Amino acid sequence: MNRRHLEFGCAVGVIGLLAGLAGAATTLVLHTIEHLTYHYSFGTLLDGVTGSSPVRRAVGPMIGGALAGAGWWLLRRRTPVPSLTDAIDAPAPMPRLALSLDAGLQVLLVGSGASLGREGAPRQLAAALGDLGTSRWALRADDRRILLGCAAGAGLAAVYSVPLGGALFAIQIVLRSWSIRTVGTALITSSLAVAVAAPVTHLEVPLHWPNPELSYLLTGLAVVLSPLALAVGRGFNRLMDYCKAHRVGDSWLLIPAIAAAGLAVGVLSHWWPELPGNGKSVLTVSVGSGLTLASAAAILLLKPLLTALFLRAGGVGGMLTPALATGAAMGSVVALAVNTWTPLTVSVPAVALACAAGVLAVTQGAPTWAALFVWELAHPPLWLLIVFAAAAIATHHLDGLLRKRAAGASSR
């Protein structure tokens, strides 16, 4: 074994360990902030929001938003914070401190109730730590890119205990490569990261499958629902892209803007306590059939709007779980409407997650990963992976057909 392969092998182990530490650290800090914001000791964020006073529900996210806004104002006035993709692709060393501080502010904002994903922070922190941990080795540029891309996927894997989902995220979305070196590195680093974070995450499945009666006809229903998933996914992407392009500038206005967004989610949580946080609460009640038709419709409308509001205010966070929650809310609306207004009976959890997979396939452009990630979040019966894959692939192909038509029309 030559020196290059030896150093790369050592770097793979270091990346996995550091990504696990990043996932464990962000999870601990996030839960601490959630408990402080809503003043609860046990249970989920949804339990904490439901049990807190109306004043705390409104003021907690507002204070967290103001603090995060102040932090981003001070950070951005001193140094630019690149996107993680740009930092990984750049030949120069990462701006590790800036990315780490930005990740910490994301955790603060999401932990205090912001409607943004929590997965951006561990991905950034894992990549920054990985860049630092491997900086002593003279790695080739392509090897360094593989390692940092896999670090981002491993950070995702660590916080949700989804080793396959984290590995495929690195392969299909971050690196877009199926080379043996990439696939092997992604699988090893994600598995290591999940194991290292286990003392904190306890390897708990994020969603608890209720084991309802299921039918293989769900596969056909998942395909039929793909136009709805496509509409929601495209609408979600366009709304988020618009708000990112028109966000508040990097001035002191970040403080009142993000605080106002926090106040909005806090006030609305009085009626819909599932809205605060990254979207796990929405997924939990969708899988647990805990939504009424009216509440599912309200969440379908409000969850993406609140996420867009935080982006418009200058906040930063992940988009995976807000998109998942929006898709699950749409699936719940469809399933509850069918069960209420027709003689048919369909599984609300299965339809909710199938629609979530379809929406995620559009927002991330990776149907295989979307299906596997959704399945790994809940670990339902294995054959439901076929249902989720049918929804994701059908929606993705329909999206591709519409894109080709639009491109053909514009060229004429």
Automatic annotation (TrEMBL):
Secreted recorded as keyword: no
Compartments where located: Membrane
Membrane listed as a keyword: yes
TM region positions: 58-75, 146-171, 214-232, 252-271, 283-302, 309-338, 350-375, 382-398
Keyword entries, A-Z: Chloride, Chloride channel, Ion channel, Ion transport, Membrane, Transmembrane, Transmembrane helix, Transport
Segments forming a coiled coil: none
Membrane topology type: Multi-pass membrane protein
Name used for this protein in its record: Chloride channel protein
Source species of the chain: Mycobacterium pinniadriaticum
Organism lineage string: Bacteria, Bacillati, Actinomycetota, Actinomycetes, Mycobacteriales
